Amino acid sequence: xxxxxxxxxxxxxxxxxxxxxxxxxxxxxPWFAANVSVFGMSYGSFxxxxxxxxxxxxxxxxxxxxxxxxxxxxxxxxxxxxxAPTMVLSRAAxxxxxxxxxxxMSWIVSIGWETLLAILAVxxxxxxxxxxxxxxxxxDTFIKILATVIVAALIVTAxxxxxxxxxxxxxxxxxxxxxxxxxxxxxxxxxxxxxAVMAVxxxxxxxxxxxxxxxxxxxxxxxxxxxxxxxxYQRRDAKDSSIVFWNTIGGSVANIILVxxxxxxxASDPTLNAAIAADPVGALATILxxxxxxxxxxxxxxxxxxxxxxxxxxxxxxxxSLGIKISRPKAAAIDGVILTLGTIYVVFxxxxxLGPFQSFLITLGVPLAAWAGILIADIFxxxxxxxxxxxxxxxxxxxxxxxxxxxxxxxxxIIGWGFVxxxxxxxxxxNNWQGYLLGLVGGKEGEWGYANLGVLFALVIGFVVTFIxxxxxxxxxxxx
Length: 480
What we know:
Blueprint: H1 28-35, H2 39-48, H3 54-82, H4 86-89, H5 91-94, H6 100-131, H7 140-161, H8 163-188, H9 194-199, H10 205-218, H11 220-223, H12 240-268, H13 270-276, H14 282-285, H15 293-321, H16 328-348, H17 354-381, H18 403-418, H19 453-469, H20 471-479
Helix pairs in contact: 1-8, 1-12, 1-15, 2-10, 2-12, 3-10, 3-12, 3-17, 6-7, 6-15, 6-16, 6-17, 7-15, 7-16, 8-15, 10-17, 12-13, 15-16, 17-18, 17-19, 18-19
GO cellular component, one term: plasma membrane
Protein name: Allantoin permease
Membrane topology: Multi-pass membrane protein
């Protein structure tokens, strides 16, 4: 495929050298555009929900955002070295068939994220149009249906067109959404009550760690399973440090500013803080003057669509890596149908989605963290480039199954789930089975009960076990 072709035809195959022309700095645009969303401000409310002070929350947010996107940058190195999607490159660690275990998990995570962003866009549309007097009880259903159709169409169209279209789109959206977001901050800065902000009491160290885990899973770890998808068009001679740097800067800069401002708003106004739980983006529109609502709505939708486009594009690639024999555009379209159905269900039938969503994040955050630890250790250990043919041949040097990696993923996940628990038991009763090892650290109601240590445990276990026990296997692969 040439860059002039409207629809990207490349699927999960290795990108030809003639098409690997991207620069590390190009990675800034998709990551920044996907994260310069007012939804980031809502995390200020989520972080304060752990019962910590503004300063604790600020430090937690900065550390969690930067660290999680650094981990994304490490995964992106594999994309530059192998010029293939993340879940194909992961076959080097798990085997060609074994990769389907984390691949299915990755596909579910991507579908979940992109559906969430579409839901937020629809809810924000309804809230803003209600404030403008356009939407009311008589036509609210029609407004939501129309918003769902428009949002889904935008997301699916961009993802079907593919990499080159998305990269151009993200570069434009970065400026549009960035400028309007700055205007939003300017218009609402007067709502900040610094006395109320500083009066928020400090929380315990366990609460701080719990908030840190939530931030990491909500930001970088939520994207980590697709990080190499956007670096596979990079030149092979690009510096690894540059790949990590631009990935981290692109994902972190906007989020740090937005979450910090969100902390100030949420700590200043308990009513706004509570409203964010029901409609994270729409609630933020309620403090704007009427004339600013339309620009806010357009920016919010574009920013959320921008993030969803990255997710659905990559979920299509992941679907192909599982062995589905269809073209990449068709895979993206299938995921688009699933996204639309999920959005319709939540918008029209579910009574609450924020609690179940955060519960979902922690639950899938555990195996995702374990997988990330395994793959990062694999990337750090390898000295040679990937065997491109073997990534698609279960009889090649990577084999069909790498039982050390698969066993590590399962073991780290089992341990990790034992040290997390559902913080939203009433809203997500289906997820109350976790935390079966918390008795070792004081029980579910103990000091560490809600710190969600399992995510960090899974990440560390995955990395350490792989780094120690797969070194010999990797050296034999490289020698072959």
